[in-house]
């Protein structure tokens, strides 16, 4: 059980990885129950809003996406430097087989903040239901799955989280920047949204490659910092993500010409008629 608080761990210098793992282990069950409560809350709000007008919360939405964009950009910068330093000094396989310097010092702090941010990111869905936007299974499912995966594997010291954290930070840096621009009513081509979805799918495919190589290394006698149960969780989660995001990509950008492109063209025609 950790005696240190979140702020004490986040503000400590140097960063104490063992204290962070102990803290994460201590809040695994609270985080799980938060994720369950989150499901009831978002569907409760959705039901409450059913016969009400969408809330005009553009300023809070802009600020929300702005802080997540800035946070993700900073996290991507720190973890990119750390991961490729690890690859250069220790080798590619070592970067996802051994929990090394990536989890120490400044990058270690950002891996901890990444894990904790998955609780904060549940707030994304509150904006969706209050604005009466479509709530997809993919959206709330991946929030719940990722939050609980992060809590379980951070406490376990899972080595291949180096790549998962780096990939997620980097994709989110682009994604939340796009969301911020959209919230500011800055028109961005549908091709940008398509590219972001493609990047999301790509990160899951890269993660599959890492997971399969880790499995090969372990099967051939190389000891890796991983645990069978959470490895299985991760693999099944990543498979489900590829399927769900792939289906979303197909329905949004390919099937029937793509719903998002159709909306973009309709918006352009409406703007042209207004002029």
Explain what the structure shows.
The chain is mainly alpha-helical and 275 residues long. It has one domain. Helix content is 77%, strand content 0%. The protein contains twelve helices and no strands. The protein has helices at residues 6-11, 17-26, 28-48, 58-90, 94-97, 105-120, 123-130, 137-156, 161-183, 190-219, 228-253, 259-274. The longest helix has 33 residues, at 58-90. The chain is globular.
List keywords for this structure.
275 residues, mainly alpha, globular, 12 helices
Number of strands: 0
What general form does the structure show? Answer: globular
Q: Count up the domains.
A: 1
Rg, nearest Å = 20 Å
What characterizes the major β-sheet?
Answer: none
> Approximately how much helix is present in the residues?
over 70%
Provide mean pLDDT, rounded.
Answer: 92
Tally the helices: what do you get?
A: 12
Strand portion, in percent?
under 5%
Q: Which regions contain 5 or more consecutive residues with pLDDT less than 50?
A: none
Q: State the end-to-end distance.
A: 64 Å
Order of helices and strands: HHHHHHHHHHHH
The secondary-structure class comes to mainly alpha
Enzyme class: transferase
Organism: Panagrellus redivivus
Pathway: Lipid metabolism; fatty acid biosynthesis
Transmembrane segments: 22-45, 66-87, 107-130, 137-157, 163-184, 196-218, 230-250
């Amino acid at each position: 059980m950790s005696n240190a608080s979140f702020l004490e761990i986040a503000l400590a210098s140097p960063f104490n990885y063992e204290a962070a793992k102990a803290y994460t282990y201590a809040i695994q069950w609270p985080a799980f129950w938060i994720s369950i409560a989150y499901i009831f809350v978002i569907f409760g709000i959705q039901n409450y809003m059913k016969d009400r007008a969408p809330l005009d919360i553009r300023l809070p939405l802009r600020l929300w996406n702005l802080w997540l964009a800035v946070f993700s950009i900073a996290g991507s910068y720190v973890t990119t430097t750390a991961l490729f330093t690890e690859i250069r000094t220790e080798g590619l396989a070592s970067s996802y087989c051994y929990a090394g310097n990536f989890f120490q010092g400044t990058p270690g702090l950002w891996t901890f903040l990444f894990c904790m941010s998955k609780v904060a990111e549940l707030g994304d869905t509150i904006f969706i239901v209050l604005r009466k936007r479509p709530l997809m299974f993919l959206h709330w499912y991946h929030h719940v799955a990722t939050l609980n995966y992060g809590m379980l594997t951070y406490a376990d010291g899972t080595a291949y989280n180096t790549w998962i954290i780096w990939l997620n930070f980097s994709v989110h840096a682009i994604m939340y920047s796009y969301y911020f621009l959209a919230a500011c009513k800055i028109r961005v081509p549908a091709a940008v949204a398509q590219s972001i979805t493609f990047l999301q799918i790509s990160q899951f495919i890269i993660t599959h490659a890492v997971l399969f190589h880790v499995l090969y290394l372990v099967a051939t006698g190389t000891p890796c910092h991983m645990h069978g149960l959470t490895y299985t969780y991760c693999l099944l989660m990543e498979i489900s993500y590829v399927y769900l995001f792939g289906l979303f990509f197909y329905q949004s950008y390919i099937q029937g010409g793509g719903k998002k492109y159709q909306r973009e063209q309709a918006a352009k025609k409406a703007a042209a008629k207004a002029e």
